[in-house]
Design brief:
The chain contains five helices and no strands. It has 138 residues and is mostly helical.
Length: 138
């Protein structure tokens, strides 16, 4: 049988070596925590900036709508060098319609239903057809 030789061990030295190994590994954890916290802070800044941009865009659109309601045309605003939002330049079909009960268009002056079967604006093709119809009738 062989006898194993046991030498005395310095507990402080063993503990110091173990702590050094753990500290090296914990440094990686610290780096991950710092990176995740920085990313979370940046994501919150982005959310706040997006909310602010949306609010400012709504205020810009409202200012353009007020200018148009006050007599400015989209063409005049563009000529002045402004970039007019599409929502102001081309109002939605819903905003362009007049309503009077049950979804029917009404003449706001008389309150009577409007004729919505023909377009409100005459196109070139409409004008040409009218001219042909009038010349045929004569």
């Amino acid at each position: 049988m062989s006898v194993t030789t046991v030498t005395p061990v310095d507990p402080a030295a063993v503990r110091a070596a173990a702590e050094a190994a753990l500290n090296d590994r914990l440094a990686h954890i610290d780096a991950i925590v710092t990176a995740q916290n920085d990313r979370a802070a940046a994501a919150e800044e982005v959310r706040a900036a997006q909310a602010r941009e949306a609010a400012l865009a709504a205020a810009e659109t409202a200012a353009f709508r007020t200018a148009v309601a006050g007599g400015w045309t989209v063409a005049e605003l563009r000529k002045a060098g402004l970039s007019v939002p599409d929502s102001v330049a081309r109002p939605s079909k819903r905003a362009a319609r007049t309503t009077g009960g049950r979804g029917r268009g009404t003449d706001t002056a008389s309150g009577r239903p409007q004729d919505t079967s023909t377009p409100a604006v005459e196109t070139t093709a409409d004008a040409e057809q009218t001219a042909v119809d009038e010349s045929s009738a004569a």
